[in-house]
Amino acid sequence: MKINRRSLALGAAALTLPGLVRAQSGTIKFGFTAALTGPFNEFGEGINRGAQIAVEECNKAGGINGRMVELAEVLDDQLVPDRAVQNLRRILDNREIVGLMCPSGSGPTLAIADMIQADGRPIINPQAQTPTIVYPNGPDKPPRPNLFSISIGNLVESEKLAAALSEFTRIGILHESTGYGVTGADLVRREIMRRKPAARVTVESYNQRAQDMTAQLVRVQRANAEAMLVIGLGADFAVIRRNMSRLNINLALFGAAGAVTVPYIEGAGDLVAGTRAVNHAAFGRRPMHGAAQKFADLYRAKFGTDRWYGPDAANPLISLAGTVGSGYDCINLLIDAIRRVNSTAAADVVRALDQTKDYEGATISRISFTSQNHVALKLEDLGTYEMLKRGDRVVLELRD
Amino acid sequence: MDDFFFSLLLAGISVGAVYALIALGLNLTFWTTKTLNFGQGSLMMLCAMLTVFISSQGLAITLAVVGSLAVVAALGVFIERWTVRPALESSGGSMGWVVSTLGFGIFLQGMAAKYFGSQAVAFPDVVFTAQDFVTVFGQYISLQYLVVLAVAVALILAFELFIRRTVWGQAVHAVSLDPELALVQGIPVRRLILGSFMLSSILAGVAGVLIAQIGGTVDPAFGFDLVLLGFVAAVLGGMGSSLGALAGGLLVGVISKLVGGYVSTAAEHGIAFALLMLALAVRPQGLFGRPEVSKA
């Protein structure tokens, strides 16, 4: 049989056409890589649960213009950047994936950012805080065209933390030695100095999972600090708080959003009382705004009052917003954009995300993006909480 | 005494005592088989996690600790039988046991993650809380630190007495020098080897419980860094020496904390490995070790 170019082209078209048709008429597919297992899975498994709830809610309501949605590629990276890169390669090889969510932390997200920018498909960042993820050339330069963020970014968080610390003159900052910790500490220090040039800030670092922080704490103590801020994750924050108690160090204690999670409350026990922290304001307000309350109800109906939600059915943990709610919002934003443009083409969805205006999310009450602003969180979306002991429970009360 | 220096010294002694316990555990198997159990870190983790699990079922914390120690002791026997012995027998003394003990440790981590979850869980206070302390000459001394120090020093001294003053201790010494000759003389070499792995695992478990109550949380990855520092302590003090383990552990702990306090906290961890390199270059047999002599 003679095979010419034309018959080859026809054959190829015949092979690809069913796929195209399937892609048009089948489910709308999303994908992401996150720390589903490993010591940081409260974040990765959290956004996975949020994404599941969003997909189920959408499908129950009839999908997007009649098409169902699906989490087609959900891979585990354990917060390891190399693994996140491998996983994303596999996800991007699946051409049916039309929207993505960034991994749980700054390290993996920074590792995949260039790759996803080159690919062009829309991606939304739920949790990673480093500003260069969205603005690789600085916050005053244009963002990556297809990468959007609803996380508590270091820039806004540092402003809120500096405001909370403004009553003190001598301040210690203890941060983990990761990109998140280093960037966060630097931004907070600069913001404190901008607000109060006479302030004295002592900055110390620690490695994640260190079991003793005496050296760091006594250095902060020797600097006569009146207050100390911890930028790190909950389990390490618990070690620091217990260590402070052993050394009889009594400073006003502040934590960044990542620090005030369940491992801190469980690990430090009664010692958490008095700790102040910055986190999403949405879950601390009463009544919660509609989308936040609806999300909390959906979560409780599906997963119950578990580790992420907390034991009090009426009052979900504040950290539920950042650990789970942000995943829910990311997928809902993608769904909303696809619905508005009635297309799954990458350029169309990115354009629709650029035009998102006052979308009511669970974690941020009004989410807006423009082509120059891809960060949704604003200062007023954050609250300063104080941890209080009520009976046998620890509660966070919104102070500011 | 300067508060700053005293705080660093006390913390250094306390964590150094834990490194010493781990080093002693490594020494025990080194005496009898010339091997090290690199899965010690996972045994520390497992003992701490089992303690959390058992106590959460309503059992008293002391019973939970004892039960967990029994489990890791049994695992010590398993490690000797299924990871070390086959490696030694099949390859005539090659380094296969390094991979097999490390591999078993990683397997234990995976199992712990599967059955207990991979997130950090709170570890209960065993005897004292982080708020309990005594005041000596105006200095606050944490009772948790004192307990760690007391338990570690007591165990190490007991082992030293056991080796020097008892018949079984002499038998261990004989096995460490020449296991074949010891067997010919009727010493139960196999039982001693099994016993050394059991005791080594128990020491790892005790170290795990002690350090977990300091930190307040434990997760499946717990223990891996600590076993590296225990290894540094063992080499620094002299492989095979109990007092060397104690001296090495305290030295690593105190120097790390002093460097962290006076120089930079970023250098705190690295200084232990700098000490290791220095010891290997200047005194390879360690502080209390004897140089090996080969007779033709």
From TrEMBL, chain A:
<protein>
    <submittedName>
        <fullName>Amino acid/amide ABC transporter substrate-binding protein, HAAT family</fullName>
    </submittedName>
</protein>
<dbReference type="InterPro" id="IPR000709">
    <property type="entry name" value="Leu_Ile_Val-bd"/>
</dbReference>
<dbReference type="InterPro" id="IPR028082">
    <property type="entry name" value="Peripla_BP_I"/>
</dbReference>
<feature type="signal peptide">
    <location>
        <begin position="1"/>
        <end position="23"/>
    </location>
</feature>
<keyword id="KW-0029">Amino-acid transport</keyword>
<keyword id="KW-0732">Signal</keyword>
<dbReference type="GO" id="GO:0006865">
    <property type="term" value="P:amino acid transport"/>
</dbReference>
<dbReference type="InterPro" id="IPR028081">
    <property type="entry name" value="Leu-bd"/>
</dbReference>
<dbReference type="InterPro" id="IPR051010">
    <property type="entry name" value="BCAA_transport"/>
</dbReference>
<keyword id="KW-0813">Transport</keyword>
<comment type="similarity">
    <text>Belongs to the leucine-binding protein family.</text>
</comment>
<feature type="domain" description="Leucine-binding protein">
    <location>
        <begin position="27"/>
        <end position="376"/>
    </location>
</feature>
<dbReference type="Pfam" id="PF13458">
    <property type="entry name" value="Peripla_BP_6"/>
</dbReference>
Automatic annotation (TrEMBL), chain B:
<dbReference type="Pfam" id="PF02653">
    <property type="entry name" value="BPD_transp_2"/>
</dbReference>
<keyword id="KW-0812">Transmembrane</keyword>
<keyword id="KW-1133">Transmembrane helix</keyword>
<feature type="transmembrane region" description="Helical">
    <location>
        <begin position="137"/>
        <end position="159"/>
    </location>
</feature>
<feature type="transmembrane region" description="Helical">
    <location>
        <begin position="35"/>
        <end position="54"/>
    </location>
</feature>
<feature type="transmembrane region" description="Helical">
    <location>
        <begin position="259"/>
        <end position="282"/>
    </location>
</feature>
<keyword id="KW-0472">Membrane</keyword>
<feature type="transmembrane region" description="Helical">
    <location>
        <begin position="226"/>
        <end position="252"/>
    </location>
</feature>
<feature type="transmembrane region" description="Helical">
    <location>
        <begin position="6"/>
        <end position="28"/>
    </location>
</feature>
<keyword id="KW-0813">Transport</keyword>
<dbReference type="InterPro" id="IPR052157">
    <property type="entry name" value="BCAA_transport_permease"/>
</dbReference>
<dbReference type="GO" id="GO:0022857">
    <property type="term" value="F:transmembrane transporter activity"/>
</dbReference>
<keyword id="KW-0029">Amino-acid transport</keyword>
<feature type="transmembrane region" description="Helical">
    <location>
        <begin position="60"/>
        <end position="83"/>
    </location>
</feature>
<feature type="transmembrane region" description="Helical">
    <location>
        <begin position="192"/>
        <end position="214"/>
    </location>
</feature>
<dbReference type="GO" id="GO:0006865">
    <property type="term" value="P:amino acid transport"/>
</dbReference>
<feature type="transmembrane region" description="Helical">
    <location>
        <begin position="95"/>
        <end position="117"/>
    </location>
</feature>
<comment type="similarity">
    <text>Belongs to the binding-protein-dependent transport system permease family. LivHM subfamily.</text>
</comment>
<dbReference type="InterPro" id="IPR001851">
    <property type="entry name" value="ABC_transp_permease"/>
</dbReference>
<keyword id="KW-1003">Cell membrane</keyword>
<dbReference type="GO" id="GO:0005886">
    <property type="term" value="C:plasma membrane"/>
</dbReference>
<protein>
    <submittedName>
        <fullName>Amino acid/amide ABC transporter membrane protein 1, HAAT family</fullName>
    </submittedName>
</protein>
